[in-house]
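Quick start: read one record
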Amino acid sequence: KEEEVEEKKKEEVGSCQSEPPAKRVRLEDLGQDGESREDAGVVEKEPAERKRARGQNKSRPCMKPNPYERSRLVDVLTSSLFFFKGCAEKCYFGARCRFLHDVGEYMAAKPADLGRSCVLFETFGKCIYGVTCRFAQAHLGDGYRNIVNADLAKQWEGKSLVRNNLSKDLQHQLRKRKFNFKKADEYLRGLAKPHGNGGKGGKATGRSTEEQEVSNCTTHQEGLGDSPKCPALPEQGEDPKPDALQSPGPTGGEEASSVKTAGPVTDEDMIKLRSCEKRKLEIQGKLYLAPLTTCGNLPFRRICKRFGADVTCGEMAVCTNLLQGQSSEWALLKRHHTEDIFGVQLEGAFPDTMTKCAELLNQTIEVDFVDINVGCPIDLVYKKGGGCALMTRSNKFEQIVRGMNSVLDVPLTVKIRTGVQEKINVAHKIIPKIREWGASMVTLHGRSREQRYTRGADWDYIAECAKIASPMPLFGNGDILSYEDANRAMQMGVSGIMIARQVPVGALIKPWLFTEIKEQRHWDISSSERFDILKDFTNYGLEHWGSDTQGVEKTRKFLLEWLSFLCRYIPVGLLEHLPQKINERPPYYMGRDYLETLMASQNVDDWIKISELLLGPVPTSFTFLPKHKANSYR
């Protein structure tokens, strides 16, 4: 028997060796996933033919000039008012410094100025970028001195134009993890405790009866003020007596000694606000500019504010990046002084990071509300459990909303979609829960995650959800491109409308839409008026990002991203019927003048040409591809 088994093994080995060459696959021909290169090539070719121009340009080239300037000037000389002679002694690094210390040498190698007038000098009386400004001839005197208009500069002295900046001290605390998250830690400890009802400690549903009474007070008696049925109760896991009464002596340890006090003790220090006593978000009937990733920057919001936007919101900020003190993420929270009703939008997937981030912002920045992004459809966010994925993770969703609401002194709002899958709407089930958890308002985008920004928004479903959400305000979002669309939306019973985003609709295509809605008219805006809007955006960008080479190129980048949407606007005078509808892509057409034709072009080179009219010639080897493939035509 053993001999028979050995003979069978030999036959099997021989049959494997005698296989025809077509069946054998060499290891070097296999990819990482075990498929042959030939098969992989076939698979790649098929979607290339069927693939539509949609989604992100993930492989687009890096557009940051590297470096912005080959010969940089030392910072101490950038905006100095003194002569450059002898300044090398003032440099901390001395002879080891790799920057230039001779202003004359720097000016000889500096590219030519882009214009004769500097917007910073004309607006504020001085330019902090000095000799590095690309419009420096407007404010440089003899010996490269930086001229200052004393009368104009005095008018702006002491005024804070942009708020919510990240200080170096706060950044250091966040990076060293020394920031005190007292309220958030209390709430998270309550989540970790096992509850008496046999539920898991991580579930937010295991609340005490006292907390349920407080939340019911918020839900049913909102806006009624003080009531004997709504007692002021401490948070979960907190002793009703204040810490100051429990330990009058210096026995609080390090935690008590680190608390700095200033001035007399007020009622707010001793008594916590109840949910029904929080500041109300009264924006019903107002025009709300949605948080727009990439394009919803501060200069763009200033443009929309000038045209009549009532409520503005910063770009989506990732909570983990904010907790790490990343300057680029904190820049998304900046608020211009003209934004009277302003909020920030946070994205996250877990209650610990979201609650801590909410407490951090509550203590450090000035906002009127905080919004949770539960509508982001992109894979990068969805696969980590954030954005639309929270609609399917109700336990974590509840913990996030309750936790953020417990640490915030300002209203908390939530932005959601109809659902994840195209034909399965779940928003009507989630909205009553959001109201119970303590949110002040919900914004509903009338599309699912699978639809992204394609097809029409389901306003009938939004109207149904508005009735379910009552008395909590619900704002509708989707397909608002004219005042007729806005009127039709308001008749659906929503509390207001949010004007957004990237499909051929909303503020990115025509920021003057706010004016049209308020004045109830179609504005046949001319190409010269539209060009003036681009000029204002450029000036606002130079104020915000700077007038040196780096600031100019950053302004150009965001201008080009916006132009990739502006080109979809069809002038009212050329339309066969009013108003313009969603996803109407006309054939190539000639405008009423050269500039209107240029602005209607979907060619990237034409967008670059418009940017050169405003910001001068682009750097050598400059390339640009828009963030979204639907906008990239060559």
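The longest strand covers residues 312-318.
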